[in-house]
Amino acid sequence: MNPRVVSFEPFPDQRPGTSGLRKATRVFQQPHYLAAFVQAIFIARPPTAPLVVGGDGRYYNAEALQIIIRIAAANGCPRLVVGRDGVLSTPAASNLIRSRQALGGIILSASHNPAGPEGDFGVKFNGPNGAPSAEDVTEAIFEVSRTLRSYTILDAHPVDLSVTGTQRLGSTEIEVVDPAADYADLMERLFDFDRIRELLRAPGFSMAFDAMHAVTGPYAVELFERRLGAPGVVMRGAVLPDFGGGHPDPDPTHAAELMARMNGLHPPQFGAASDGDGDRHMIVGPRFVVSPSDSLAVLAANAEHIPGYRGRLSGVARSMPTSRALDVVAEHLGVPCYETPTGWKFFGSLLDAGRITLCGEESAGAGSDHVREKDGLWAVLYWLNIMAARGQSVEAVVRDHWARFGRHGYARLDYEGLDTERAAALMDGLRGRLASFPTGVLVGRRVESADDFAYVDPVSGARSERQGVRLLLADGGRIVFRLSGTGTSGATLRVYLEQYSRAPQAADRSAHDLVAELEGVAAHAAMFESFGLSRPSHRV
Ligand code: VG1
Ligand code: CO
Fold first, then answer.
1. DSSP-derived secondary structure for 498-517
2. How much distance in Å is there from the Cα of 111 to the middle of ligand 1?
3. Theoretical Cys-Cys bridge with 318: which of 62, 322, 504, 524, CB 3.0 to 4.6 Å?
4. d(CA 371, ligand 2 centre) in Å
5. Rounded distance, CA 496 to CA 522, Å?
6. Same-fold call for 182-405 versus 407-539
7. Confidence band, pLDDT 50/70/90 cuts, at residue 527
8. How far is ligand 2, taken at its centre, from the CA of residue 205, in Å?
9. Which residues contact residue 530 at a Cβ distance below 8 angstroms, ignoring those fewer than 6 apart?
10. Which residue's alpha carbon is nearest to atom 5 within ligand 1?
């Protein structure tokens, strides 16, 4: 078993985006592509301490893990902690990094993007605090990758990852762990499991959790079926390499089977779903969908009901495009509310410094200082704990929230598959017109201010520019434009629409209805017509 040096031509395109390096599976399967990126990580961050590795179980997960293990061993990594069968959800990996005091972790996932030979694959590198690496680290890795011409790999047989226990590969110890055990223990420390168990047993109460054939299946079975004693609540629980051919994005379009049940004749009282790597969540009641931004605000407003959070909210944070429903709650609680660029990597330093306890994004991600990633099943348990403590349905919890704090009607429009240069030109055009917006009226709406969001991390001082164009309207409306950083072909323009209202009638209108007028304002502001944009390809 000797380390072997393998040479190749450098890859110029390994710059990580919003959430790690995400590419078409075929790109990752090219000879040396994955190995080169992993070697670049180990040059930027030599693996001198234990590393956690695992992934969401998608196509190429198993092969990629074997490559990573052999490169880690050849680069002198003393110990690897690997999820059984190579499976670890993103939040569970974050937890393991923290509890094992590891140097960091490599998480294989393209999150909610479809899997398979025609789908996507991804690699994320997290640091010792369990959080996605900050931009200085991802940039350092990218810089190394641009000129890297060789990697070192151990010539060895594949390691058996199907049984828990410790084995050796060269001088590296490999510990295979039950992916769900530590994580489920952590959940039991945060939430009132006795109360949730009672709720799940109450006559007439039932729930359904859609694991979308992705990574949360085994976690959900452990939590809901074993520890909370509710057999049969997990739908599509087997982890399949192609996610059952589906698109594991927990929104009403992609969780169609769950939605059919929730809108059917005898719906469960509580429905939930998570994404490919287990960090997003969707919450649904009978014929009632909770908007992700509202979910985050509800979690913050109800912290007093949750054992792990009662009396200890130091502050909260949301990504810039996320609705300002959270800000209203923070003001009421008298705690600071930070506004960060899109992507979880910006929350890490605020969480580490104790400035915030809870945070989240409009893209169905919420989390807290229990790990350093967003966490889907955590959010589902949090909701169950709120319902158990308040004795209310999903819909009643949300309607109460609106009555107290007002409602932030919200929608996101995605324009996918755009030509990269034209999309960049559209954004540049908006940037060029920023100063002109507040001086005039756009389709009958007055713009109070317009800017291109820039962020200075209050802890590290790191500055991030050009994070999205935002138009604040005088009547409580807001429009945000930004380009996605997780796509793998062409460009995706995201347009975020938000309208605040304290009028009681707002509760009875649909979210899309509340922001419908803003769609025209957005189209006008960004000159959609001259870019040939008409209908979004996806609405959430
Ligand atoms: C999207 C979401 C962002 C999220 C990111 C990763 O990024 O908008 O909020 O953090 O995905 O989530 P973008 O750049 O495409 O808008 V996940 O669950 O895909 O790791
Ligand atoms: Co995800």
1. EEEE--GGGGGS-HHHHHHH
2. 8
3. 322
4. 15
5. 9
6. no
7. very high
8. 29
9. none
10. 343
* Interval 296-344: pLDDT, tens: 999 999 999 999 999 999 999 999 999 999 999 999 999 999 999 999 9
509 Cα: distance to centroid of ligand 1 (angstroms): 28
pTM of the model: 0.94
Instruction: Fold for 407-539, please state it.
Output: TATA-Binding Protein (3.30.310)
Ligand 1 probe mutation, 362, 363, 494, most atoms within 8 A of CB: 363
Residue 111 annotated to the active site: yes
HSE of 480 in the Cβ direction (CA atoms, 13 Å)?
24
- For position 17, what pLDDT does the model report? 84
CA separation for the pair 377, 386 (Å, rounded): 14
On whether the 3-178 domain is CATH 3.40.120.10, my answer is yes
Measured distance CA(366)–CA(376) in Å, rounded: 7
**Residue 1's pLDDT is what?**
74
Domain-wise residue ranges, the chain:
3-178, 182-405, 407-539
Question: Residue 458 pLDDT more than 80?
Answer: yes
Q: Is the CB of 94 under 6 A from ligand 1?
A: no
At the second CATH level, the architecture of 182-405 is: 3-Layer(aba) Sandwich (3.40)
Would the CB of 363 count as within 6 Å of ligand 1? yes
Beta carbon of 18 within 6 Å of any ligand 1 atom = yes
Rounded Cα gap, residues 73 and 174, in angstroms: 10
Candidate list 109, 111, 293, 323, residue with the active-site label: 111
